[in-house]
Amino acid sequence: MISLLGMKKSSEHDNPRTYSSAKDRYRNQDKHRWRKVGVWLIPVVLSVLVTLDFFVDGVWFIWSVALTIITFFGYTVLVLEWCVWKVDPARKRLRIAFLIVCALTLLTALGRQSSVPRTTTLVESLRPVPVPVPSIADRSAVENREYLDIKREKLLEFFDKYNEAQSETLVKPYIGKWMEIPGRVRNVSREALPLSMQDGVPYKWGIKVILSTASGDKKKLAHIVTQATFDDQRWMDRAAVLKRNEDIKIRGQIRLVFNSGFALDHCEIVEQ
């Protein structure tokens, strides 16, 4: 019995064709194992990319579609090589065609990317966004100053006696005049300032200081709130280092009067 098994084993090694075919069969299985993994893995990746196409836009959409196309054709090549074209010449032509498709897809994506408007990144979205601020006068009005000739509390009394529309009409003659007001600093922040279009840039940054001033008539209003905007670099540097609860006095041009205070432009710090 042992001699028969030995003869069978030796006969397999003595026959080169039988031994080679068996060896090639196992080699092909090992060589094509990655195809079995790819057949199941690539559809998962493709489904993720197709889903992503519906949730992104701009440049992200372009590259998501490009990756979807490349993945789809790559999967097609994988299946065709495994099931249809098993001969090397046919496979080479198929792979060359796939590389051409990849190159054309990437070139098209690059071309489309240059025509898509630039989108805001996450870091940029966290920065302060310039918001148009209504302005009643340009810098030329700073030189020709006309000061407020009534008590500031009188302007605020209009909002107690009349509705908002009537009050805005009554305070309109005082818009653009200058006033001085003392107060306590509540907050200091950056402010987007509109510029004339001749400057080429629609906005620049200024400093906004929120002041709280004790009212002369505490029965009606405990504190007057003033939004002071500094747009001159000299005063911006001074205002930027003001501390909370610091007592100061400012001078500015009235841009807006509302029921609890004022909004002033072109502000300056008055030395006390």
What does this protein look like?
- It contains ten helices and five strands, in the order H-H-H-H-H-H-H-H-H-E-E-E-H-E-E.
- With 272 residues, the protein is an alpha+beta fold.
- A hairpin with a 2-residue loop joins strand 4 and strand 5 (261-269).
- The chain has two domains: 32-114; 140-269, OB fold (Dihydrolipoamide Acetyltransferase, E2P) (Beta Barrel).
- Mean pLDDT is 75; it is low at 4-10, 25-30 and 119-137.
- The longest helix has 27 residues, at 88-114.
- Helix 4 runs antiparallel to helix 5 (88-114).
Please sum up the structure shown.
With 272 residues, this protein is α+β, with helices and mostly antiparallel strands. It has helices at 2-14, 16-31, 33-53, 59-83, 88-114, 122-125, 140-143, 152-161, 164-171, 233-239; strands spanning 178-194, 203-214, 223-230, 247-258, 261-269. It contains ten helices and five strands, in the order H-H-H-H-H-H-H-H-H-E-E-E-H-E-E.
Class of the largest domain, according to the CATH hierarchy?
Mainly Beta
The CATH architecture classification of the largest domain is Beta Barrel
The Rg value, from CA coordinates, equals: 39 Å
Order of helices and strands: HHHHHHHHHEEEHEE
Overall tally of domains: 2
Assembly category:
single chain
Question: Secondary-structure map with pairings?
Answer:
Layout: H1 2-14, H2 16-31, H3 33-53, H4 59-83, H5 88-114, H6 122-125, H7 140-143, H8 152-161, H9 164-171, E1 178-194, E2 203-214, E3 223-230, H10 233-239, E4 247-258, E5 261-269
Parallel strand pairs: 3-5
Antiparallel strand pairs: 1-2, 1-4, 2-3, 4-5
Helix pairs in contact: 3-4, 4-5, 8-9
